[in-house]
Specification:
By secondary structure, the protein is of the alpha/beta class. It is 36% helix and 32% strand. The strands form 3 sheets. The protein has a 6-stranded mixed beta sheet with strand order 4-3-2-5-1-6, with helices on both faces. The protein has a 3-stranded antiparallel beta sheet with strand order 7-9-8. Helix 8 (188-200) crosses helix 9 (233-252).
Length: 270
């Protein structure tokens, strides 16, 4: 297996350039901040950016947790990976990751200064310092299940590979818990009100109640509605599911796992 390292200090834009560097070195897989990434998919691991403290994030990123490391090692063996890009803040960090995952030491080390201009690095540092924002080199949809309730910003990058191909990679900008300036929370009451408001936008729905089930990957919404008597129920309830899901996810950034809708009561239109 070929291993290549991308090294640079924290906040210098390594994850932003990860897909580009991997493509230039014919590597399909990336190890970044506790994740094993293939193309635009997370195939194993847990993001260090979910941790509550910086220390915990570092431990996650270098795979100190045995179960975490074993999961990623098993996936690497299962996929029979030919080459992988390992991202770290130093060569020592990369070596620690390689040891934890039973990877060979890098055949080549690329420093962020070799592929980014001083202006790009300064911009990345400023964004990290002022806004606490981090980049994960996969689309928002791919990691949303692991970042339910976080504010996510999708970012598309266009670059040319060879003379003809224009490659589009999508990345996600997140603000981890440990970098927050204050605490971001959403109460069940707020979610309840958003869901009911969205449901009432569907003609024939008068109101009802919402029961929320909180899970680690997101929420399940159970709606018991009052609907107009005599109108077809199935299309109305399906429309409610779609409207509620779109509204709640857009306004809260929560991952809506499932919406169960029940016509509990009926009313007669005057």
């Amino acid at each position: 297996m070929r291993t290549v390292a991308l090294v640079g200090k924290s906040g210098t834009g390594k994850s932003h350039k990860a897909q580009l560097v991997a493509g230039q070195n014919n590597l399909e897989y990336i190890i970044d901040d506790g994740l094993l990434i293939y193309g635009n998919r997370v195939v194993a691991g847990m993001s260090a950016k979910r941790e509550q403290t910086r220390l915990a994030a570092v431990k996650r990123a270098i795979f100190l947790d045995p179960a975490h490391a074993q999961e990623v090692r098993n996936k690497i063996t299962e996929l029979d990976i030919g080459g992988i890009l390992v991202i770290g803040t130093s060569e020592n960090m990369v070596a620690t990751i390689c040891k934890a995952l039973d990877l060979p030491l890098p055949e080549k080390v690329i420093n962020i200064e070799e592929i980014s201009t001083p202006s790009e690095i300064n911009t990345a540092r400023r964004i990290r310092s002022l806004d606490g924002k981090h980049v994960i080199p996969v689309p928002s949809l791919e990691i949303k299940k692991n970042f339910s309730g976080y504010l996510l910003d999708p970012l598309k990058i266009f670059y040319r590979r060879g003379k003809q191909d224009v490659v589009v990679t999508e990345k996600t900008v997140v603000r981890p818990t440990y970098s927050y300036r204050g605490k971001y929370t959403i109460s069940d009451t707020t979610v309840n009100q958003i869901a009911l408001y969205a449901a009432r936008q569907i003609k024939g729905v008068a109101g009802g109640r919402v029961i929320i089930e909180n899970c680690s990957e997101g929420i399940i919404l159970n709606l018991e509605l009052t609907v107009e008597y005599g109108i077809p129920l199935k299309p109305i309830l399906e429309a409610v599911q779609e409207e509620v899901k779109n509204s709640v996810e857009h306004m809260t950034a929560l991952n809506v796992l499932k919406i169960n809708v029940l016509a509990k009561k009926f009313y007669f239109k005057e």
